[in-house]
Amino acid sequence: MEILTTQLPSGGYKYPFTTVSISPMNFLQITKYLENCPQDPLEKYLYDIRLLKEEDPNIQNCYVMDLDFLIFLKKLITVSDDLTYTISAKCPDCGRVLKKRISLESDIHFKQIDSKIMEGAQIRLGNTSYDTIVPTVKDLEEVMSVYIRYKKITDIKIIKTISLIKNFKISANQIEKDILEAKHSDITLLLALQELYFDRLEGIELTCPCSKDKEGRRGMTVSVESLIVDFFRDILNNCPIDESKILFK
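and the corresponding C-alpha cells:
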C-alpha cells in the first residue's frame, strides 16, 4: 500500500520522497510478531519501527510526528479490509465499556500543520538556551538507544521530547536534567512542544450516557497513540469469525 506523504500528519513537509510503503501482516508475520515482540515498552516501540523500516527504508527519514500514525495504519490494514476499526474505552465514572466503530476516512483527522514550526526554534529551559529540531525516526532511534541501554528513562513521551533538542549527545546529561526537572513555565513550554510536534492527530470522542442530562454526560478522548498496542486482541475485536468460516461436525 503506497501512502502519499502529503496524507501524513506532517503533510510530507520537505520530504525528498513522495510516498511510503506499508502492507498488512499475514498469519506467519503476526505469529512471529507475537513470539518475538519484546515486553519492554521501549524495545517494543523500537521493534514496531524496525518492522516499518524493513518494508520501506524511507521510514527512518520520516518525522516522528508521522510515526505513530504509520504504526497505527499498518495495524489497521492488518485487522481491517475496509479501513474501519472498533475502539473501546471504560468510563471512569460508571465503569461502562464504550465502543465505537471508526473509519480512517471520516474519523481520523490531523491538526493543520504550520510550516513555521517545521524549521525548529530556539527555546529556554531553566538557565540554558537550546535549538530544537523536528526529529526524524532516525533521530529518535539514536536517543532511544541510550535509554534502552541504561534503562534510565522508560517513558516514550519524555524520550520523544528529549529528541527535540539539537545535538542531544553533546549535552545529554544537561538536557535530560533540564527536561526532567522542569518547573512552572518550563512545564508549559514542554507540553506545548509535545502538542506541536507529536500530537498531530485529533482525538476520537466517546460519550457515556451515564449522566441523565446531555450537558452532564461524560466525554472521553481516545488518542491514536493509545491504539498501537496488542495485535492479537485487535484482530479478535475487529475480525470476528461467523458460521461461514467454521462449521463443527
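(Above: one complete record from the training split.) The chain has a mean pLDDT of 82.
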